[in-house]
Design goal:
The structure is a single chain. It is built from 11 helices and 12 strands. The strands form 3 sheets. A 5-stranded antiparallel sheet has the order 10-9-8-11-12. A 4-stranded antiparallel sheet has the order 4-7-5-6. Strands 2-1-3 form a 3-stranded parallel sheet, sandwiched between helices. It is α+β, with helices and mostly antiparallel strands. The chain folds into 3 domains: about 90 residues, Rossmann fold, CATH 3.40.50; about 130 residues, 2-Layer Sandwich (D-amino Acid Aminotransferase, Chain A, domain 1); about 60 residues, ATP-grasp fold, A domain (Dna Ligase, domain 1, 2-Layer Sandwich), CATH 3.30.1490.20.
């Protein structure tokens, strides 16, 4: 029986999401026939190393956010020469850094929103882009810290004063229209989901609260856009050098008619595996149950040390 350690929890703003993902994964892997060792990760890296001293056959990385999907824990596992799920250190670091991933996507000819990196001091002084636009932390996931600035709003100084995500931010043009997402399993795009959020946009609460969003799959979009989204998700996965499962997020502007404009926002190298998460839902739509999805990730775990 293959022994699998499941890392969950962590020290990022997404700790609770990771704990939820981990609980689901632990149960699914046991159902799939693996010997599972849960490892709840906290601030003490030494305790994590001690928990992995028995050298499991694979490590299931169910961590989210900083130190979990930004290449840090991946580097530790490379050092330990342990096979682990999802992407390696380099791809994880690139995907988590929104400025770096934008540069990679642009170099690969993939469609990205107009935008740039700014200093928060500059943001406090004036609007860095024509309204409306979006401001995002450079290295957070799950829409943590994301805000939309619109005409007639007066929140710039408030956001700048409360900013706790480092000295810089990414600002991008706001793309009107619809939210789409595509899960990828290695070289296979699953399907296209349209997300209708209960809030202004697909924020943290929309992603993880019961009833926070409504998912339509397959998305009822123009066939050309549907096929383009599938192709772009795999191309973005490949451009970053990702492995295993990822999820690509898009904005689809059809406000001026079809087929419209599709814009790649980001690639998530550690898609959520909670009861409301999108990747498991897409996998199930394609006939892959949750235990089988988790088992597939374990069987595709690799050692990059």
């Amino acid at each position: 029986m293959k022994r699998v350690a499941v890392l969950h929890g962590g020290i990022s703003a997404e700790r609770e999401v990771s704990l939820s993902s981990g609980t689901q994964v632990i149960s699914a892997l046991r159902e799939a026939g693996y010997e599972v060792q849960p490892v709840e990760v906290g601030a003490d890296l030494g305790s994590v190393l001690a928990a992995l001293a028995y050298r499991p056959d694979a490590v299931f990385n169910a961590l989210h956010g900083r130190f979990g999907e930004d290449g840090v824990i991946q580097g530790v596992l490379d050092w330990l020469d342990l096979p682990y799920t999802h992407s390696g250190a380099r791809a994880s670091a690139l995907a988590m850094d929104k400025a770096a991933s934008r540069a990679v996507f642009a170099a690969a000819g993939l469609p990205v929103a107009n935008g740039r990196v700014i200093d928060i001091g500059e943001f406090a002084e004036h609007d860095p882009l024509p309204l409306p636009y979006v401001i995002k932390p450079l290295n957070e996931g799950s829409s943590v810290g994301v805000d939309i600035l619109r005409q007639g709003g007066n929140r710039r100084h408030e956001i700048a004063r409360a900013w706790s995500f480092g000295p810089q931010a990414l600002v991008e043009e706001f793309i009107p229209g619809r939210e789409l997402t595509v899960g990828v399993m290695e070289d296979r795009a699953l399907t296209v989901t349209e997300i209708s959020a209960a809030h202004e946009f697909y924020d943290y609460d929309s992603k993880y609260a019961q009833g926070g969003s409504f998912h339509t799959l397959p998305a009822a979009v123009h066939p050309q856009i549907f096929d383009q989204a599938l192709a772009l998700a795999v191309a973005a996965h490949d451009a970053l050098g990702c492995r295993g499962a990822t999820r690509a997020d898009f904005r689809y502007d059809d406000t001026h008619g079809e087929p419209g404009r599709l814009v790649l926002l980001e690639v998530n190298t550690q898609p959520g595996l909670t009861p409301t998460s999108l990747l498991p839902e897409q996998a199930a739509f394609c006939g892959i149950g949750f235990p089988a999805l988790c088992a597939w990730m374990v069987e595709h775990a690799t050692c990059r040390g």
